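input
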Amino acid sequence: MPRTPRFGVNYTPSEGWFHHWLDFDLTSVKADLDSIAALGLDHIRVFPLWPLFQPNRTLIRPRAVEQLVQLVDAAAEHGLDVNVDGLQGHLSSFDFQPSWTQTWHRRNMFTDPDVVNAEAEYLRTLAAALADRPNFIGMTVGNEVNQFSSKPHPDPDRITPQQAHSWLTRMLEACESGAPGRLHVHAEYDAAWYQDGHPFTPAQCSRLGGATAIHSWVFNGTAQTYGTQSTATSQHAAYLIELSKAWADGPGRPVWLQEVGAPAPYIPASYAAEFAEATIVSALDCPDVWGVTWWCSHDVDRQLADFPELEYSLGLLTNDREVKPAGQGISRLIKNIRERGESPAPRTTALVVDTGDPDAAPKLSVCAPGGSVFEAFMLLSERGVRPTTVLSEHAGDAAHLAARGIVEVITPEEVRSLS
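output
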């Protein structure tokens, strides 16, 4: 893991959004990459649209794969490494699933053998096409694919935690088969950390793949409940990073803050730069952070219809490639962080997490905003404590605590009694 964290951005093309794959224009892509590299960022995360790359179960379009390789090569010319998400899947409220999984061909994307085999071959093909590119970081299985598995999705492919585990294992094996030795991960939205009964679990997030990917969005009720400038809002990403460590198999597992952004109106434009700095600084006060990848590079063009309002203004740059205040602030911040080269001290106080079972975690709502673990973590943070977390099953395990550098264990109830 790099001593200085990586800093990057989720690449949203300034022209055409992710529909740019339909009319792929390398000149436009290179102009976008120019504007990204000028911020001092070192990597991007890119999003092929699954139905365009694999329009039939047995057809992975060679031309689409070639265009992805062209994008990765162009990124290398700009000094940018690239992570590739495979199964999109879901982006900014829109679902992109191939016709061979829907309506007359409706099949469960997580359990149908033909679909799973096709998904695995698709991921293997993308990874193999990039395996010899030195700036290829690795694959992410797909963007927040867990949203297809449960409520509130209007038509979910329901599965059990065991089936989710099997599917993730198969997809990660496909990525590794295509590009051995790269950093291959999977990424869920925060239902995997917060929603009771969700089939994608913290144990899967923290144990499968080469790093734990965190997606932190304060529009999940955090900003609405606690306030724009609250500790809970500025520490939300750090909280998820430290929460993930309760389920990790051992100390030192890399954690990648792969998505975090400043969604208006919950984070007003006038406060976006300050929020970005506070969020990144608090996240980097957590040991073992591989990197931070901001969402997103460029605003969505308002000529495109039907996006949730907050999606239009999340960019560090406008869709005319002009740097916004948040982009300026992040650029200055990462320059300072690289110059200092500091590493965070260990977090020695652990908050006990009891979700009913260490693997299935049926009572995750205690970790959600408003839950006892969440609120205790924020109370400790407000007092200047730098908490981490530990599962209740390990709270009395001296060897486990010592390996993680934990010297004090405290329950949410004990935190409340101190307030």
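quick obs: The CA atoms of residues 232 and 259 lie 17 Å apart.
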